[in-house]
Amino acid sequence: MSTHAVLEWRNGLPYSTQFNDIYFSASPDDPEHGLAEARYVFLQQNKLEQRWQQLPADRPSHFVIVETGFGSGLNFLAALQLWQKTAPAQAHLHVVSIEIAPFTLQDLQTAHAHFPELAAISQALCRQYRYLQPGINQLELPEFSASLTLHIGDSAQVFPQLQLKADAWFLDGFAPAKNPQMWQPTLFECMARCAHAGTSFATFTSAGLVKRGLQTVGFQVEKTRGYGNKRDMLCGQWPAAHLQAPPASLPKVAIIGAGIAGCSTAWWLASLGCQVHVFERADTIANGASGNPRGMLYPRLNAEKPQNDQLAWRSYSFSLRHYAGLHLGDEAFQVCGLLQLGSNPREHKRVQKVASRYADLGLLQKLDAAQASLQAGVALTHDSLYFADGAWVSPAAACASMINHANITLHVQHTINQLLPQQPGWQLASSAGTVSDFFDAVVVCNAAEASHLLPDSGMWLNPVRGQMGMIVGQAAMQSLKVILCGDGYLTPLVAGQHAMGATFAPGDHNTDLREQDTLANLEMVSKLSPQFNHANSAEVTFARAASRCGSPDYLPYVGPVLATAMLHAQTTSIDHFAALPASQGLYAHVAHGSKGLMTAPYCAAILARRLLNDFGTTLPQLTEDSFWSGLHPQRHLFKQLGWKALLEPFNHQAAA
């Protein structure tokens, strides 16, 4: 993250030099003055305690707050504390906050130290408050049944993109006189677009332009007493005369496949309250490519395919937070750093291009050979890209953690061979006979096997065989501190062994173990560092082969699968995503290639929220329509139909 808030600490309190104002106020007679003000202005005037106590206790529900200006996060902490005390167990809080210059993690922790009663909530937030980058950052706090969608950017650009229905607004940010660019008509227009009957707002200011702006778009506005020495403030709501749609019931969803894509999709849907059934043809989960003992977590950047790079960046920061939040333990997840070596002319050129394009994001560094050697703990001979937060994960452990959710039912040894559309919903035909339950939606996550269930989808699924292995550590390798990536990878020692891999054989479905693949992996290891010149004699303790599934453009297929006949019957060209036919409750989530460990959780999260949106539960979205359309399972078919304009916003946005 390249742009953080520039603070001065005055009497221990954060002060913005950019906006010439304090983030929260203090009083010598009341050390928690700022917290008390947040409670009075935003929680009390939005009547949150009463509203949260009235949420249904017998079924899942969602409550959405939108905040202008995350700042120190004090409003978020205060809201979460009240939520924890008053909301029913099945309710989920979504906070969407917009911030142009976020605090650093250290500054955030320093600010929170003023409020020891919020320490537990602060610690949960700070564990997720990392790897931030411009755009949408999703932070999950499942122990509080809460999510924070943090938009880092200019509010004028964020407001038109918001896709949600807000239950309450915290109009914070700095005062209109000091931050006029936020208090613009685009804010009030966004509030009206995202409102429903009873949507409330509260703000510390009583400025006339704010009052008039809210009234102009249709809000009822009330002036009330401000907190402390502040005479007035504003609060109000969207008129009840505007009819509110009855709350939608959450869909019952079937997931086909229990690899990283299927388990991630199931976990996100279950976390949002859906009842999910996962069907796996094998007798265990993570039986395919997700069954390897270790997988690498890093973005493979190109600098010439911006759409792929954008997915990589978003997924990388997202998945690091996600796996950390699963509390897998050191035996299943370690952030140890990773070096991508410019080990041949082509890779050296890529290293230079990637470094020049992305170094400002703060998630990578370009190191020369000497610097890389110091970082690695072993001798290296090439310039490298260093990812300080590069990690390895046990995919099977991650899948097991995600599938272990009260809202998920797992069915193993179920080969689903046909999807049967009903009116409405779906039934599944399996090797054991027709599944009796009806499902509102089906998500196909079974990699290359998806082509059998979705033969007319237009997806091009390319199988790629890969074999990895484990070797006993040798003296030359003891000092390795980071993951090394060249033509393959080698991890630092864990329990006396390194993981190495993986071969790459497009078009090969076979998963038999091959001695030549083991030798190829050992040869790859020997080229990573001159210290490893005896790697070919290393003792191999484990080997495993699996088939991965990719697409021609190296982007996964994520989204609704529409009837091909329906698309061909379209008589006019489609140039925007909203013009596509409505979803029929059938979705695909496949083709992550060798990067599924990183990209699948992120894609699962955006798919889960889009799916619920299709069924009438409008939650904050984690990506823009243009990005979503670029992952569509039928994007190749769209091009054949002459609908290239539908995908161009994705390419343009990714390149920006």
Task: Give the topology, please.
Elements: E1 7-10, E2 13-16, E3 21-22, H1 33-44, H2 48-53, E4 61-68, H3 74-86, E5 91-99, H4 105-112, H5 119-128, E6 135-141, E7 146-152, H6 155-158, E8 168-171, H7 185-193, E9 200-203, H8 208-217, E10 220-225, E11 232-237, E12 252-256, H9 260-271, E13 275-279, E14 295-297, H10 306-325, E15 333-335, E16 338-341, H11 345-358, E17 365-367, H12 369-376, E18 384-387, E19 391-393, H13 395-403, E20 408-411, E21 416-421, E22 426-430, E23 433-434, E24 441-444, H14 450-453, E25 462-472, E26 483-485, E27 489-490, E28 497-501, E29 505-506, H15 515-526, E30 540-550, E31 557-560, H16 564-568, E32 586-590, H17 596-614, H18 625-630, H19 635-640, H20 648-655
Parallel strand pairs: 4-5, 4-8, 5-7, 8-9, 12-13, 12-24, 13-20, 16-26, 24-32
Antiparallel strand pairs: 1-2, 2-3, 6-7, 9-11, 10-11, 14-19, 15-19, 16-18, 17-18, 21-22, 22-23, 25-28, 25-29, 25-30, 26-27, 27-28, 31-32
Helix pairs in contact: 1-3, 4-5, 7-8, 9-13, 9-17, 10-17, 10-20
Summed up:
The chain is of the alpha/beta class and 656 residues long.
Label this structure with key terms.
656 residues; alpha/beta; Rossmann fold; FAD/NAD(P)-binding domain; 9-stranded mixed beta sheet; 32 strands; 30% helix
Commentary on this structure:
This protein has 656 residues and is of the alpha/beta class. Strands 16, 17, 18, 25, 26, 27, 28, 29 and 30 form a nine-stranded mixed β-sheet that branches. A hairpin with a 2-residue loop joins β1 and β2 (13-16). α7 runs parallel beside α8 and α10 (306-325) crosses α17 (596-614). The protein is globular, with a radius of gyration of 26 Å.
